Amino acid sequence: MGDFDGRTVLVTGAGGGIGGAIVRHLTRRGADVIAAGRELSSLDAITGETGARALAFDVESEESIRGAIEGLDLWGVVNCAGFGGEIATPQDTDIAVFDKVISVNARGALLVTKYATREMIRLERGGVIVNVSSQASLVALEGHISYGSSKAALDNITRVSALELGRHGIRVNSVNPTVVMTPMSAWYWGRDDIERPFLEQMPLGKWATEDDIAGPVVFLLSDEAGMITGVSLPIDGGYSSR
Fold this sequence. Notes:
Layout: E1 8-11, H1 17-28, E2 32-37, H2 44-50, E3 53-56, H3 62-69, E4 76-79, H4 95-123, E5 127-132, H5 145-165, E6 170-177, H6 183-189, H7 192-200, H8 210-221, E7 232-235
Parallel strand pairs: 1-2, 1-4, 2-3, 4-5, 5-6, 6-7
Helix pairs in contact: 1-8, 3-4, 4-5
């Protein structure tokens, strides 16, 4: 992996499982990590464990994001804050839930990118952004009309940002994980009628771990990925290759 000494990386959603794993991987490699979440209390465990700095802001509020990020000397960003929404068909979806999923997963990541890249360009050191997307943006999954749409929007934000920011030496990529089996996801994906047929269609036949996601994120942030930008990288055990 690359040497992150002297590089400050902002990680949103750092109080969650995947976000926390990313913070751990980055701090072990010498990065100065700013662990961000909606509430400072949600960050106590990860900052206490890793020594990362805590920063609180609301990804649904442009004013909150601007106030938190302006003036930070940033080299990298991981947009990991997310909201799962509901399991619903297009005809049954709750539009208020759809709006919130879009607001957090797509609009929030765009707003963080908007203000973080201003600071990265100011420093004239280049940098990297990694967006945590989903396999739900690459293939159609039943019940995922809101979540899949938000992550498809995030993938386009990734591509257009890569196009626009390359001239400043800033790379932008996304990772697109399959399900990480946590208590939050087990209520749906852990059901035998859902889990068994899904894993039977996946070449590797197993769920991802948080470290399975964090490792590729850190690779994309590293200098070893210096010619990779505008990519959506599936981390899905081969599911989207079917």
